[in-house]
Structures are given as C-alpha cells and as structure tokens.
Amino acid sequence: MVVPFAPGGADVIARLVGDRLSAGLGQPVVIENRPGGAGGTVGTKSVTTAEPDGYTLTLASPGPITVAPAVYKNLDYDPIKQLAPVAMIASSPVVMVVHPAVPAKTVREFVAYAKANPGKINFASPGFGTSSHLFGELLKQRTGIDIVHVPYRGATPAIVDLVAGQVQMLFDNLRNVQSFIQAGKLRPLAVTSSVRSRETPDLPTMAEAGIDGWFDGYYWNGVLTPAGTPAPIIDKLNVIINDGLRGREMPAALARLGMEPKGGSPQDFAAHIAAELARWTAVARAANF
Known about the structure:
Layout: E1 2-3, H1 11-25, E2 32-33, H2 41-48, E3 58-60, H3 62-71, H4 79-82, E4 83-98, H5 107-116, E5 122-125, H6 131-143, E6 148-151, H7 155-164, E7 169-173, H8 174-182, E8 187-191, E9 218-226, H9 231-245, H10 249-256, E10 260-261, H11 266-286
Parallel strand pairs: 1-2, 5-6, 5-7
Antiparallel strand pairs: 3-9, 4-7, 4-8, 4-9, 4-10
C-alpha cells in the first residue's frame, strides 16, 4: 500500500487498514511511504502504472485525487481513468479558524470585517493548490471578499504563523487545529461539512453560518487500486475493509485521530470522487488558476 506522503501522517491510517487487510487475506501488507510532487502526486502516479492484480494499493486523499487534477493543467495521470476505487475509509471535518485578534466570532462577522478591510486579511494554506487554498478561494467567490492567500510548505508552519498572528485565517482539518482551539489560541467559526461534527457539536456548518452555495466538503482517506483490477478482487478488498469499519477496533482508532468511519461500496466512493473533482475544477477555473 503506497502512501504518497512522508511518514507520520496518513500512514497511521494506512497501517490500520493494512492490519485489517492482512488479517482478512492471511498475508502481510507492506506500507510504503513515497512522498514527492505536488500534494502526493508522485506516489499516486506510481500506482497508476502498477499491475492491476490487487497487489498494489494506495491510501488516497483529496490532494492527489480531486485537487491536483483540478489545479494542474499538465498532471501526468488521470485518477478517474487510471485508478479504481475500493472503499472510503474515514473523513475529518474541515474547520474555518481565525486568530483571536480578528474581531469576528461568526462567519458573517468575518465577512463584514473583510469587506470593511479589503486586502488586509491574510489567509494561510499548506500550499498553493491544496484543498485548504481552494476552500479560501471558494469563500472569496461566495462572498465577494478580498483576502490575500499566503501559501506555506505544509500545514504545520501555516498553523504556527496563524497562532502567532502573522496571518489571520485558515481552513484545515479539525484534527490539526483542535488542540489550539481547546487552548484558546485559535477561534473556530464553522465547519465545511453538511452536518455538524461530533467533535464540535456547537460549531455551525458554513450553510448554517449563512454562506450560500456548495460548501459541503471534508478531508477524507480511502483506498484505490490500478484501473483494470478485476471486480472480484476489488469486492473482496471492499468487504474486508467494511467489516473492519463496522467492528470496534478500527472505529475507536479512527476516533482517536479525530476521524469518522465511512465505508460503503466502490461505486459510492467513485461517485464521491467524481463529484468532488467536478466542483474543485469549477472553483479553480473561477479563480483563474
């Protein structure tokens, strides 16, 4: 199972899935971190050219699957044509957070403040063309505010500067910023999912906060395999993963990571990928990337 990122992040989830597959298949599952490229594109591309025999998988996430294809004109792989969905594993809410110095406790107040101070609010992201960046662009498109994008080399330095007050706003996974929210160093305004998060039930969704248009998005992980892998193999892998997600150990481990189990059929996962890719492509075009 290829994880297209450096160790210490998504590979934790990959190992959960790998352990379940190993138990279900009766053979070891090797986790290989293969970082590089824009948002995990190098490791993901390597899977598109692997033999479609069920022995090579990748732990997928929005970056290389639904964001990079929307942003980069010359991306040298097609996730829709060259990869086959197996199952979605879990999701994590994306939360809009601001530095406490920003005089806004709601999204409406933030929009009003931004309109009163055009070009003076900086929003951070883990890098140009990341889903965090696209959420910021989507907010600009839906509200007409003028805020400045500041890309960083990863989520950690972006969060560090936000906590220090060097930038004023960020969209990021709840699990990445939750400790700073609990410590009062960041103020959450809303989550981007269609329903409120179990982790922050008092925090409104963007729709509840008054932002019209599509803002139903979240961070997710799932398993993909090379296109052309026989359906019986994909179905067997799907059944094993879903059995694990319905058990006790995997959901408990995912909850400790701030993620909710998803599961479902390969067709469900394919529909999610197609819809998200279409929406992010529209956002990128409107932003003139």
